[in-house]
Amino acid sequence: MSTDTLTPDRIARLQDEVRALARERGAVVLAHNYQVPEVQDVADFVGDSLGLSREAAATDASAIVFCGVHFMAETAAILSPDKTVLIPDPDAGCSLAASITADQLRAWKAEHPGAVVVSYVNTTAEVKAETDYCCTSGNARAVIEAIPEDREILFCPDMFLGVWLERVTGRKLNLWLGECHVHAGIRPADIERWQAQAPDAELLVHPECGCASQCMAFANGRTHILSTEGMIRFARQSPKERFLVATETGILHRLTKEAPDKRFEAVSERAVCRYMKMITLEKLRDSLRDWKHVVTVDPQIAARARGAIERMIAIA
Ligand code: SF4
What we know:
The protein has 316 residues and is α/β, with parallel strands linked by helices. The protein has helices spanning 8-25, 37-42, 49-58, 70-79, 102-111, 125-128, 140-145, 159-169, 181-184, 188-197, 212-217, 228-237, 251-258, 281-290, 299-314, and strands spanning 27-32, 45-47, 63-67, 84-86, 116-120, 133-135, 153-156, 174-175, 202-205, 223-225, 242-246, 263-266. It is globular.
């Protein structure tokens, strides 16, 4: 039975099984904001990459089940080498992380000797091992601002986030031309249509979006470029009632839970990450029951990647 056809009773039963197995196994369940609602609802902690990394580093549970994509589980494994990290579906990848390899990054570094490498957290462990600072959209600006002004910076792999960072920090960055197919698919035309249809709404845009740089160009007082956690904070605190959201549609569930008196609509209903949606409640239950799929990182790669990830966690 696919998750799409789950009845409320079956969802409740599976969630009970997951909770019982997690307790029995001493595992904490972490879920990304883009996960399907029934997985978010059973998790011990739901958040963005930065929040989940912090939680993975801080938890005293002996095992972590990571409901997200593979690089996120890998990051948790690097931060917690003494813990077992499981991912319910090992094929849950990321088109953005796949857009740069460690060999490509090494070649790029060779062309810019002495440059500081800042990698978005959506990268493989091998790429992180070649990186000075990791960042997420939640702290990318602070990471760039922490680097001395006279240092050349290579930023990879997301070009849209990179363009946004150049704009908000005033720094010139060397950008890798990678993109997330989901966010790149949210086009300026989607934004324009909504701006016309909902002039009373606040527009929340993730900086990875293909529309983000254009949004900056015609930004008005009601356009806000924010990480997913930033969107949640903003919506909770805002006196406004209606919000248009330009990121993966899984965030709508979390936003609606956190600010139930407000109205949230996706700028593009097509913005669905098939990798994130590969994690289902059944696979989560099976993962805990059958103790699969264990995520491991080569200890030498992990040792080199850990410094960049720890710098990311330390910078607010
Ligand atoms: S939404 Fe994009 S960046 Fe996020 S996991 Fe999916 S493919 Fe990767």
